[in-house]
Structure formats: C-alpha cells, structure tokens
Amino acid sequence: MNRSLGLCPLLLTLAIAQVGQTAGASTLEEDIVVLKEQVTELNSRLDEAMTISGYVDTEYSVNNKKGGAANGIRIHHLSLFFEKRVTEKWRFFSEIEYEDGPLFDDKKTTEGKIYAEAVNLSYAWRSDINLRGGRFFTPAGIWNIDHYPPFVPTQERPLHVRNIFPQIFDGAMVYGTRPVAANTFLKYDLYLGNGEGNTGKNDGNREKAVGLNAGLLLPFLKHTEVGLTYYRDTLNNGTDKTAIGTHAKVKAGSFAFQGEYASGNHKPTTGSDFVNTGYYAQFMYNISHWTLGMRHSAYDKNSATDAIDNKEVANSVFVNYHINHALVLKLEHHRHSYDDAKKDPFRSTMASIVAYLGS
Amino acid sequence: MNNRYIVSLVLVLTLPVGSAIAAEKIAVIVNAKNTQTLLAADVKNIYKDNVVTWSSGAPISVYDLPVKSEFRETFSQRVLGTSARDAATEWANKKITNSAKNPPTTKPDAVVISNVASEPGAIGYVSADAVAGKEGIRVVLTIE
Fold this sequence. Notes:
The complex is a heterodimer.
Chain A (H helix, E strand, L loop, with lengths): L1 H47 L2 E13 L8 E14 L4 E15 L5 E17 L2 E9 L30 E14 L2 E10 L15 E10 L4 E12 L5 E13 L2 E13 L6 E14 L2 E11 L11 E13 L2 E12 L7 E11 L3
Antiparallel strand pairs in A: 1-2, 1-16, 2-3, 3-4, 4-5, 5-6, 6-7, 7-8, 8-9, 9-10, 10-11, 11-12, 12-13, 13-14, 14-15, 15-16
Chain B lengths: L1 H13 L11 E6 L8 H8 L13 E4 L5 H11 L3 H13 L8 E2 L2 H10 L3 E6 L9 E7 L1
Parallel strand pairs in B: 2-3, 2-4
Antiparallel strand pairs in B: 1-4, 1-5
C-alpha cells in the first residue's frame, strides 16, 4: 500500500511530463509551420521589391597631353541601377549615373553630370524572343555593352568605342538566345529607334535607325564568341550612315583575347563620302588575383571636308588586382600617337579603385 | 642564361591557375519530379545563362552557393571552367548590363537542398555527402 502510494506521484509526474512533451512537440511543429510560412512570405516580398545595385570609381591620373586635363584625382562615377520584377514576365531596369561628383545649386553652379543612361521595360516572352522598350546601351560589339569599370581592365576605353556606333539608343528591340547546334548558341539584338544624337525628346528627324548585333557562342576552349554588328541611320544633318562591325572574344586557360573592328560609312548631303574606322586587340593573362594585359587601339576619324589623315593610335599596358569579385585596383599606362605630324603624341598613367555595389 | 629565363617565364605563365579545388564530390540536384537527364555541358549551359527552360518548357530556377564556398569553387572550376570569383564577376556584369536572363539565387547548401526539394523547376549543387537520405531531390550528375 505504501509502496503503491509512493509510486503514484512518480507515475503522475511521468504522465504529466509525457503530456507536456507531446504538447511541446506539437507546439514546435506548429512553430516550424508558421516560420516556413513567414520565410515564404518574406521571399515573396523580396522577389517583388526593387533592387538597387551600382558601382563607384575614383582615379588618380597624370598625363603630358598639351591642353589635356590637369593631373589629379577624379571622382569619376557613382552609378545606381534600379531593377524591379513588375510581374513574372515584365521587368523594369534603369541606370542613373552621377559623373564627376555633380553639383547643381541655387547659385547656378554647374559641375559634373547626372544622366539616365538606361531606362527600359523588358518582356521575357521566351528564351529566343524577348522585347525591350525605352533607353538602352546600343547593342554593338562587345565594349559598348560590357563597359562598366568594375568589369573592364582599363578606365580608358578603346578609341573607336562610342565614335562609330552611338553609346545609347532610344527605341525598342527584340533579343534572345537560341541553340543552333550542340552547345552552340546564337545571341541577337535587333533594334529600331531614334538613332544617333536623338535621345529623350530631341528626336531631330523623322528617320528611324535600325541595328542588329549577332554573336555565336561556340563550344571551343573556355569561351569562344564571334559576332557581327550592322547599324543604319540618317543623321540630323541628312547624312546617311551605315556602320558595320565584327568582334571576337576567346578565353583559353589563363589567357583571354578580345577584339573589335568597326567601320562607319557616311554619305553626306554635300561634300564627299567618308569612312571612319576603328579597332582594338586586347590580350590579358589572369594569375590568381592579378590580371596583366596590353591593348592596341586605333581610330581614324574623317569628315566630308577634311582630307588629312586623322588616325590616332593608343598602346596600353595594364595591371589589375582583384581584391574580390566586387573590388578591383587598376594601374594603366597609355601612349597616344597620331599620323598627323602636327599633333603631339602624349602619355597618360592612371591608378584607380573601383567597387561594384551589388550582390 | 637568357634562354633559361625565358623558358622559366613561359613555364610559370602556362601553369594552370586557380584556387585549390576541394577533393569532395559535388552532387548536382534537381527536384525528384524532374525526369530530365543532364550532362555536364547541359549544367554549364544552365549556369552560363544560355539555357533558361527545361525541355518541357518550364522555367529553370537556378541555385548557387556563396562565392566563398569551397564547393562553389570546385563546381566553377570543373563545370564552368572558371574560378568562383570570375563566375561571380560574370554574373555581376550581366546584371548591370541588363543582360542576365535567369540569374541564380545564392543560398547556403541546406537551403539549396530544401528549395530544390520544394520547387519542381529548381536545380542546385551541393556536397555529395549532404544529399544522402534527403527526400524530394534527385542527383542528376556527380562531379568527381
């Protein structure tokens, strides 16, 4: 009797503990369900949120160019990218660039530049057919698109870039990627819009420009890409312009090559026809955090009234140190020379730090 | 002396460059309901943004590991033929040039397994050891 009485509290305690444990496990399971729902909701909100990324770069440059920029520090770019997935298919993208630490104050001080370099809306229909409307970088060659300082080896760009194909384009485009053979893909951008010098509300003529950039990704080496660009425009002064270009990019082991050639044929309403031509070849070697490289770049700018040889050549060497994928230190040296003996050759050296502000 | 110097320089320059690759196996995983077979080249095309849909036409949801993960380094070196840092740089460039069609979502390996198990269109990769006994996923490729 005493023994059974003694066991009762023990059994009761065990029973209560068991019930408590069951209730505890049940509560824990409920908590996990609630937490999972909260994570799902949070992920859904993050998917819908506008994302902001960007980059910033600062340079110190010296040069001996007559009448060139003074040696010194330049707070070059602060660019902010805003992106929002409006629906599953529709996506908004913009880039606002603040160049040279802009200042616009009530004393009418004007320094630097604020520029909406990209503002567009894209519709992702299918892999090989997508639509985009608004302002975008002109799809022409490689450097016109892949030009952002965190991801190119030099702050100075090849000479012909932006001089034969326009930097940006207001209009609409169809673009996509489709397989054409085993592990071989065709990328294309077909675009129609206001054309060169006609951004924003300043469309100076009724003609529309049209362009096509097409590239083949081939299954050779680490990366092999070759492509062509075609661009046709009637400029605001009536000149018919037809530009063509070709580009190639190859990565093999630690070596990388990138090159472009472009030629713009102009037929002005008065004066003689003329052609502007430019090209560059760039070689890079990547070793651990370092990128070493050299580039030969040339641009021959002509005009209907100018018979002299205007060819400019730039030979460049550069070293990059990648602290990580988002932060790079650059040192570059350029030697510029001209066919025109009246123009003095010059040299420039630049050290810069560039940060990508994104995930 | 000069020839020896040049030969040494060439040898140094032609040495394969990259971080140490982990010896562990990597498992490329998809949702258990996904029956498509994949070769290493297919996985590369997905992670290079050249292919964004499954053969059924359903969109692919791509999962990546953090850049500092040793498994991402192994995956990048062996499947993509580049370092994890360079792969991350390529994606960052695609994002700000507005040319990324299907950017990957970066998550730790446990979350990659959980999300691939719950999303029919998902693909990811983790340590082969981490997938043992996990339900809802299928290993489509093992990278030695």
